[in-house]
Design a protein that fits this description.
The complex is a heterodimer of chains A (182) and B (238).
Chain A (H helix, E strand, L loop, with lengths): L1 H7 L3 H4 L1 H21 L2 H17 L9 H24 L27 H10 L2 H11 L5 H8 L3 H26 L1
Chain B lengths: L4 H16 L13 H16 L7 H4 L5 H19 L5 E5 L2 E5 L4 E5 L12 E4 L7 E7 L3 E7 L4 E8 L6 E3 L7 E5 L2 E8 L3 E7 L3 E7 L3 H8 L2 E4 L8
Antiparallel strand pairs in B: 1-2, 2-3, 3-8, 4-13, 5-6, 6-7, 7-12, 9-10, 10-11, 11-12
The chains are: A mainly alpha (182), B alpha+beta (238).
């Protein structure tokens, strides 16, 4: 009876996930944002904006372990800072999608089954941050394109295109790794 | 869409690699601004208030974009200039305060705030006999304390702030001449408003104090000089 009672009790801290995220990750987020934006006030604004976006996607990380929670926080702050940097610089050449000019159709759904997990892991690490982040949000955190577009600050179509390019980029790297092995 | 357990596992491994590059326990020497802390409190409050209905979060945290803030500020400046004729600004440096007086108001700034405490770590009280006044605490948080004393005829507003929060504080000094007087060895900014309201503002080195009242200035000065820091009681166990 006592154990049932204890399991039903929620402390304020357990319920206040946002305060805990602030406590654990606020300074790390500031440092990441400062590295991109190079301005302390902009970095603080980025941290605030990142928390707003995290709160709107809290269901994606509540119940996850600290490792996955930290990963999500890093992805969000990085994308928020890059989004702010692009808006303030208004530099179209910062669109990294241009760097991946991959022609070809959709990636086969089951092409990854042919490869070792380690090969896939190393290939993911070889992707640019923005492509790795979008694949992570989609396939590790199960986020919809709409949710991802709000994190990265892009339109729905733009996000869909970037995901498509990220998948193609991953396929290209894995294929090249496999070709070298052979 | 890619369906793969291997992809999921690989992504978990990739997250661990990414996380290893960032240490959340690293000590960084950055002091978050008062503006950031205020925004943080507003975000947490909006989140807590919208726990049962997450869709209300945006409404509760009314976010105005930076561009909108700049636009609003620009419009306010233009309106103020049109209404007041954009007069001359006179700057005073009194004690630790810089006061920029314009025709209708003064903008006050606490100087040297970076080295001052960022939160209210001390508590101050008035020892002057105010027993015939009703006391009402209007604000008591980590940045500002504000107590209002009133009776049938008179009022006294006693405030103290962290210096970081006392930036661009707008004070109504319309048709008032700004002067100074000594309060407990500190230079205080002084002005009279509407021929009856007296205002004293001073910096004690750590915090900004304000006293507003319709009493005679000699009494207000007496009250100001009875302000003292309350000592914390420490129990020593034997």
């Amino acid at each position: 009876m006592l154990s049932i009672y204890l399991s039903m009790v929620e402390t304020d801290e357990e319920r206040d996930l946002v305060t805990r995220i602030y406590t654990h990750f606020e300074r790390m987020m500031y440092k990441i944002a400062l590295g991109i934006l190079k301005n302390p006030q902009d970095a603080e604004d980025a941290v605030s904006e990142a928390f707003i976006r995290i709160i709107k996607n809290l269901d994606k990380i509540s119940g996850l372990d600290k490792e996955k929670c930290k990963g999500f926080v890093i992805i969000v702050i990085r994308n928020v800072a890059i989004d702010m940097y692009k808006k303030r610089k208004k530099d179209e050449h910062l669109d990294i999608d241009e760097a991946y000019d991959i022609s070809g159709g959709d990636v086969e759904n089951d092409f990854l089954e042919k490869y070792d997990t380690d090969v896939i892991h190393n290939s993911i690490n070889s992707l640019k941050d923005e492509y790795r982040d979008i694949i992570t949000m989609r396939y590790l955190y199960d986020m919809t394109i709409d949710d991802i577009s709000k994190i990265v600050g892009m339109t729905y179509d733009g996000t869909n295109k970037r995901l498509h390019r990220a998948e193609q980029g991953l396929f290209k790297i894995i294929s090249e790794v496999d070709h070298v092995k052979q | 869409m890619l369906n793969s357990n291997k992809l999921h596992t690989a992504l978990e491994m990739s997250i661990k690699d990414m996380n290893a590059a960032y240490d959340e326990n690293e000590v960084i020497s950055h002091r978050f601004s008062w503006r950031y802390k205020r925004k943080k409190r507003a975000i947490i409050k909006a989140y807590q208030q919208s726990l049962q209905r997450p869709e209300e979060f945006d409404r509760r945290y009314r976010k105005i974009s930076f561009r909108q803030k700049v636009l609003i500020a620009a419009m306010a400046i233009v309106m103020a200039a049109l209404l007041t004729g954009a007069g001359v600004v006179v700057t005073y440096y009194i004690g630790g305060i810089r006061a920029e007086q314009q025709s209708t108001h003064t903008d006050a700034f606490a100087m040297d705030w970076e080295s001052a405490p960022s939160t209210l770590e001390k508590t101050y009280s008035i020892s002057y006999d105010l027993s015939n006044y009703e006391k009402n605490i209007l604000s008591d948080d980590e940045y500002q304390y504000w107590a209002e004393y009133t009776n049938n005829t008179d009022y006294i507003d006693f405030m103290y702030w962290v210096k970081e929060a006392y930036q661009n504080a707008r004070v109504n000094t319309e048709e008032s001449a700004i002067g100074s007087m000594a309060i407990n060895g500190f230079d205080a900014l002084y002005f009279q408003r509407n021929e009856k309201d007296q205002v004293l503002i001073w910096d004690n080195g750590e915090y900004i104090f304000e006293l507003h009242s319709n009493l005679d200035i000699s009494i207000i000065k007496l009250i100001a000089e009875t302000i003292y820091e309350e000592k914390k009681i420490v129990n020593i166990q034997q």
